[in-house]
Amino acid sequence: MHWIDWTILVAYLVWIVIDGLRLTKRSKELEGYFLASRSIPWWAVGLSVMATQLSAITMTSTTGQGYADGMRFIQYYYALPLAMLILSVTFVPFFHNARVFTAYEYLEGRFDPKTRSLTAFLFLISRAMACGAVISAPAVFLSVILGVSVTTLCLLIGLPTALYTIFGGVQAVTWTDVKQMALIVFSLLVAAVALVIGIPREVGIVGALDIAGSIGHMQTFDFSFDLSNRYTFWSGTIAALFLFLSYFGTDQSQVQRYLTARSVDDARVSLFMSGYWKIPLQVLVLMIGVLMFVFYIFTPPPMLFNPVHDQQVRQSARAPEYQALEDQFGRAIDARRAAATQLAAAKRDDADGATLPAANASFQSANDEISRIRQSAIALVKDVSGDGSYNDVNFVFPTWVTTQLPIGFPGLIIAAIFAAAMSTISAELASLSTATVIDFYRRWVRADADDAHLLNISRAATGFWALFASVVAIYAVELGSLIEVVNRFGSFFYGSILGVFLLAIGWPRANGNGAFVGLIAGMAAVAYVNFSTSVEFLWLNVVGAVAVFVVGAVVSEILPSRTARA
Amino acid sequence: MTSDVRKHYVRIVVVWVLSLAALYALQQYFS
Predict the structure, then answer these.
(1) Do A74 and B13 touch (CB under 8 A)?
(2) Which of A84, A220, A363 to mutate to test the interface with B (most CBs of B within 10 A)?
(3) Rounded to an integer, what distance in angstroms lies between the CA atom of residue A196 and that of residue A208?
(4) Across-strand partners of A40?
(5) Could you give the ipTM of this predicted complex?
(6) Is B4's CB within 8 Å of A269's CB?
(7) Which of A82, A264, A272 is the closest to B8 by Cβ?
């Protein structure tokens, strides 16, 4: 990157830290530090909810997914507005009226301390590991593109975030989220406009989307009912509904966002903001991927987007094999460009569509040839580098940004990728600290501690989790497959934790014993389905929630407890 | 719950249906 781009990135980092630290004076007592004294306006809470959910992985991997697979991934978000509607009627008033700091605190009032502690503990381990992944993923991608070490990038992302979160608390988290969200959306719009401008005039935007559509990149609905297919209309509306209910309704990193709202209605409306805008925003992100695909039809792309792996293979004993693939790739790129131009002309000029099927077939065949060559090259990289989980599409967007945009724009968009990572990490650190202090320290260690003492412990807990996540992130390269296992392990909990809350709210006679046994049974059911079937992970949320609810209700009926109440 | 919030419930369903319809139209037009 040019020094001007680096200056923009550094200016962003300095500005966001100063802006966050400015709010330290408003976080002098525990409710101010963790819940901003329940004083945040609905629109700021709404933007914070969206910024927390949109991580740097969305900007790098999801755009890459749009490049490789097209719009298909949008189906994953179809249930989100419905989830927001359901939560605003059910969970939001329960949490607000209970005046709790954490979602898990509510479970003690409803069930018992052991159910609260177990769900809070599951949250802490899964969210802390996920926080490490949120730091490491963009650091790994950007280190390759920017030529900076992963450790330096982890520290560049993690340290400023930790600084303003430790001192500014949730006030700082929310108000920096608002600005970060504005930067992210602005950058995405800049990227989309730059891509549209980059389409050859004779093709045009409609022609570009026609070309993408001819190989299925514009597919937004897949009605096949296949539990082993990750992205279908059914997994997006049924399975993802459970995931979103769990994420927005029981994950402290999100619940804490809307607990800062001034009233129940403000909290509801803040969630509606995601309901209105999440699908259009994801369309924008995926469309950037689709437009990059079209852009690289007319501008020769590198065979692989990771220059480090590219160099590694060139310097290995298998360099001749790689060179041969690259020669084939060059010819295939020329053939695909010619086929795409013919296809665009056929769509535009051929009124009766007589030449369209042949042009379509020719383009599809040219594109398949490129996919085949890239797959061979990726297999070669995996052999030579030993990086079995290498996914080339993660590098497409950062490569396009740093090689195709004029000076100044790469700095802006890389700053937006940092902003996306930081807005997620800050909310996660604040929630980890809240659960640690409220659900464990104040509950089990010092119930009589005053606010000043708890505030110091809270800052120390935020610092501890920042350190923990950074260490996980720095070693994530070596722990690559382990992180994947941990993230998958996290999906064991999501549905099950949702099941406990559904039981609490939806089954008046449910009691602590039922909830605790149900939770264990839910996780066991998810483990069984995961290891013995090919069911995709989104459906595990349904399995977990249903198993907890059914087992919890049955056990509660068999073993009534004096603690049960409606 | 205020009437403003109730209006949002209706609006969110309308926007959701319109979004899915627009995406379906997009798929059909460009396939």
Answers:
(1) no
(2) A220
(3) 9
(4) A261
(5) 0.95
(6) yes
(7) A272
Length of chain B: 31
How far is it, in rounded angstroms, from Cα A471 to Cα A473? 5
- Residue A176: name the closest of A284, A36, A31, A274 by CA: A36
Q: Is the pTM of this model over 0.90?
A: yes
For A218, the closest of B5, B8, B26 (CB atoms) is B26
- Each of the 566 residues of chain A gets a pLDDT tens digit; together they read 899 999 999 999 999 999 999 887 766 788 999 999 999 999 999 999 999 999 888 898 899 999 999 999 999 999 999 999 999 999 999 899 888 999 999 999 899 999 999 999 999 988 998 898 889 888 888 888 888 888 899 999 999 999 999 999 999 999 999 999 999 999 999 999 999 999 988 888 999 999 999 999 999 999 998 888 878 999 999 999 999 999 999 999 999 999 999 999 999 999 999 999 999 999 999 999 999 999 999 999 999 888 888 888 999 999 999 999 999 999 999 999 999 999 988 888 776 777 888 999 999 999 999 999 999 999 998 888 877 777 788 889 999 999 999 999 999 999 999 999 999 999 999 999 999 999 999 999 999 999 899 999 999 999 999 999 998 888 776 655 555 555 566 677 889 999 999 999 999 999 999 999 999 999 999 999 988 988 888 899 999 999 999 999 999 999 876 554 44
Q: How far apart are CA A463 and CA A436, in angstroms?
A: 12
Task: Give the separation between CA A223 and CA A238, rounded to whole angstroms.
Answer: 12
